[in-house]
Each structure stands twice: as C-alpha cells, then as structure tokens.
Design a protein that fits this description.
Elements (H helix, E strand, L loop, with lengths): L2 E2 H8 L2 E3 L5 E2 L1 E2 L9 E4 L8 H4 L4 E4 L10 E3 L3 H12 L15 E2 L4 E2 L4 E2 L4 E2 L4 E2 L4 E2 L4 E2 L4 E2 L4 E2 L4 E2 L4 E2 L4 E2 L4 E4 L4 E4 L2 E4 L5 E4 L4 E2 L4 E3 L5 E4 L4 E2 L4 E2 L4 E2 L4 E2 L4 E2 L4 E2 L4 E2 L4 E2 L4 E2 L4 E2 L4 E2 L8 E3 L4 E2 H12 L1 H23 L1
Parallel strand pairs: 4-5, 5-6, 6-7, 8-11, 9-12, 10-13, 11-14, 12-15, 13-16, 14-17, 15-18, 16-19, 17-20, 18-23, 19-24, 20-25, 23-26, 24-27, 25-28, 27-30, 28-31, 29-32, 30-33, 31-34, 32-35, 33-36, 34-37, 36-38
Antiparallel strand pairs: 1-3, 2-7, 21-22, 38-39
Length: 344
C-alpha cells in the first residue's frame, strides 16, 4: 500500500488538515500504529492517544483537535476508515470459480452465470442459484431452495428444502438454515413430533454468523429482515420475524413466534421468550431474560428484564445486601438485649 494523504481524503470525502502530500504506507489501530500508517479516532474518550500514536495521519470527526499530526476530518471516521481498509487490503481470498468436478449438481437445478460452487457441495432438484453467488465446499442446498444474486455461502452451510435466500446475503460456516422447529406434543406419555412444514426467508443484505441455527416455521415463514446481522452461535426459533437492520449478538436465543421490530439490538446471551413483540429500536442488554413484550425505543436489562434504569437500581440494592444483612443482625441483637432487660 502506498498513497498520499490527499488521495485518501478524496476517497473518503474528507478535509485534510496539515500536509496533504505525506506518504501513507499502512493502516492500523491508533495504539498499534507505526510510522507511515494511517489510523482513525471515532470515540472522543481516546482523544489523548492522538499525541502518543506513531501514526503518520489520523482520520477523525469534524471536531477540532489540537495536534501537530495531519488529519482527515470526516462525518463518520469509522466508515471512512473502513473504506481505506477496503482500498488497502490485498484480497488473498480466492472464491471458488465455476463448478468443481466433485460437486453433485442435480440436472434440474437452475444455476445462473458466474456462479462458483466448491468441492463436494450437493445441490438438489429444483434449486435456483442467482448470478454471481459463491457456494463454498461441503455445503448442502436442499430441494427447491433458492439462493439469490451475489450471495456468499461459506463452507459446511446447510440450506434445507424450500428455503429462500435473497440477494447479497452472507452465511458463515456451520450455519443451518431451515432445520425443523422445536415442536412436540405429549400424547399418552410420549412426545409426538409436530410436523414443521413452513420455510425460512432471509431478505437482502442480511449476514448470518458461524453456527447459527434458524428453524423453519411450523406453517408459514421464519423471516430474517433486510440488512439484519446475526453473530455466531445464535438460535432463531420457528416463526420468528425480525425487522430490518437488527443486530443479534453471539449466543442470543429467540423463542418461537416472537417478532422483532426494525433496528432492534439483542446483546450477547440475551434470551427472549416466545409469542411476544420487541418494538423498533429497542435494546436488550447482555444476558437479559425477556419475559414480556418491550415497547419501541426502550432499553432493558436483567432477569426478568426490566427498564435499564430500574434494573440498575435493583442491582445496586442487591450489592448492598451483605451490609444490610449485617445491620439487621445487629438490630436483632439489640432488640434481644432490650427484651432481656425488660424481663429483669
């Protein structure tokens, strides 16, 4: 990588402060940066690092910084830095091109132009794969599954029968899309399986992390909304519907028939019961246990989950329990002593 600062500023639509002709030869975080690197500062609490970093230049917000280092001021330094990373990174990843001779492809599958299918992938009858999509090795696409345009399916992903993946979706290794919903009924002392005959729809620009499981609906569709991003090791149960641009962090679990609005955030290990609604832009904190619906825009935490401010107060009280217990014991001793004196 070798650019001059004003070239990078043009790319990110930023304003150069300082020498626009300094050479940039690398990229790095603000703490790790070395001579010649460009870095970024998005969080003001790290402003003290501006003077100590060895970086040659820094991408910042439009705020004023007193520094001798060259800057590129931008509206969003994180997004700007992402563009620089994309420009600088050498793409060593070689996606599969064409159809590998060991792949097992049904003659009844419809495969568009420029599709890559890796070794030992199985494509069943009725499958449709859109133009520019890449299916890595060891994947399984079940009967009548549909994969849209420019999707990227990493190794060992299972996409079961009649599942629909829209355009530009990324699915990471080990994910299972369309496994049976967890439905059983006790009949004469035996758990009888309830057929799960629905499907899964993953809308445009969603990203599904490694080892995520998304169950098919019992009758209709489990839906992952447009632009939603799901971290690794997440469980989405049958008939769940997420709105657009949700964030679901690692090890979260959403029980059946729950609906998430737009831009909902579920932090790590959050657990959501079934048949409730989570409103638009609601936030569920890490390890929270949600047992009832949440209005739009509300942040909840704790178990059972409650508004975050209230949960903080409850937790503060819990932290004082040992001290309060000690005081109660002291008061009990005093009361006992007074009672004994009265008897005398």
């Amino acid at each position: 990588m070798r650019f001059i600062l004003k070239e990078i500023a043009h790319l990110v639509k930023g304003e150069v402060v300082g020498d626009p002709n300094i050479a940039i030869t690398g990229i790095s975080g603000i703490k790790e940066a070395k001579k010649g690197d460009i870095t970024f500062l998005a969080n003001p609490k790290y402003a003290s690092l501006v003077e100590t970093t060895k970086a040659a230049a820094i991408i910042t917000s439009r705020e004023q910084f007193k520094t001798s280092k060259p800057l590129i001021r931008t509206d969003n330094p994180s997004i700007a830095f992402t563009k620089v990373v994309s420009l600088a990174a050498s793409d060593d990843t070689k996606h599969p091109k064409g159809i590998h001779p060991t792949a097992v492809i049904s003659p009844n599958a419809q495969i568009a132009k420029d599709v890559g299918i890796g070794a030992y992938t199985v494509v069943e009858d009725g499958v449709e794969i859109g133009a520019g999509s890449v299916i890595y090795s060891g994947c399984y696409l079940g009967y009548s599954a549909k994969v849209g345009k420019k999707c990227l399916i990493y190794p060992h992903v299972s996409i079961r029968e009649r599942i629909e993946i829209c355009d530009r979706v990324i699915i990471h290794s080990g994910a299972v899309i369309g496994s049976d919903g967890f439905g059983f009924a006790m009949v004469r002392g035996v758990q009888e399986k309830i057929p799960q005959i629905g499907t899964v729809l993953i809308e445009d620009d969603a990203e599904i992390g490694a080892n995520v499981t998304i169950d098919r609906a019992r009758f209709d569709k489990t839906i992952i909304g447009k632009g939603t991003k799901i971290d690794n090791l997440v469980q989405i149960a049958h008939n769940v519907v997420t709105g657009e641009n949700c964030i679901i962090v690692a090890q979260a679990g959403v029980s059946g028939s729950t609906t998430l609005g737009k831009e909902v955030i579920l932090a790590g290990q959050a657990g959501i019961v079934g048949h409730i609604q989570i409103g638009d832009k609601a936030i569920v904190a890490a390890q929270a246990g949600v047992t009832k619906s949440i209005p739009a825009g509300v942040k909840v935490s704790g178990y059972p989950a409650k508004p975050h401010e209230k949960a903080l107060r409850v937790n503060a009280c819990l932290q004082r329990l040992p001290e309060l217990y000690k005081k109660i014991r002291e008061l009990e001793e005093k009361v006992k002593s007074l009672e004994e004196k009265d008897k005398e």
